[in-house]
Amino acid sequence: MAAVETALCGKEKSVHGAAMVNERFIAVSGRVCVYRLDGKSADAALRKAKYEASRKQRVIRATTVEGSKYVVLFTIVPERDVSVGEVFSLYSLRWQIELAFKRMKSLTGFGHLPKTTL
């Protein structure tokens, strides 16, 4: 990942790949955006990764240790529409919305509705 740090931090790289949609693979073009975490955030991410590894009785890999220092996002939105910084800002906002919904479900009990079939 050291190459990622020097080549991509705060930048992006165009990539081509495949995604599964309705049990079929389709071609996808987009960009990978990479952001290096500050020391405190990277340490917290590493602690979490180590905790998860120990909880599952697994040995943490060197790539996981190095990868915990970065946030990597994939987007299909063109660079001309959204900059790398805006990608991370929008992701952060989306994550806050997800957490708000999770909290509302927890407080209202909507997360435990009975399942029914039609």
Overview of the molecule:
This protein has helices at residues 2-8, 39-55, 62-67, 84-108; strands at residues 11-21, 24-36, 70-75. By secondary structure, it is α+β, with helices and mostly antiparallel strands. It has a domain at 2-37 and 70-107. The termini are far apart.
List keywords for this structure.
118 residues, alpha+beta, 3-stranded antiparallel sheet, disordered N terminus
Describe how the helices and strands are arranged.
Layout: H1 2-8, E1 11-21, E2 24-36, H2 39-55, H3 62-67, E3 70-75, H4 84-108
Number of helical segments with 4 or more residues: 4
Q: What portion of residues is helical?
A: 40-55%
Largest sheet, strands/sense/barrel: 3 strands, antiparallel
Low-confidence stretches: 1-7
Structural class by helix and strand composition: alpha+beta
| First-last Cα distance | 49 Å
Radius of gyration: 18 Å
What is the multimeric organization of the chains shown? single chain
Strand content: 25-35%
Number of strands: 3
State the gist of this model.
The chain is an alpha+beta fold and 118 residues long. The protein contains four helices and three strands; from the N terminus they run H-E-E-H-H-E-H.
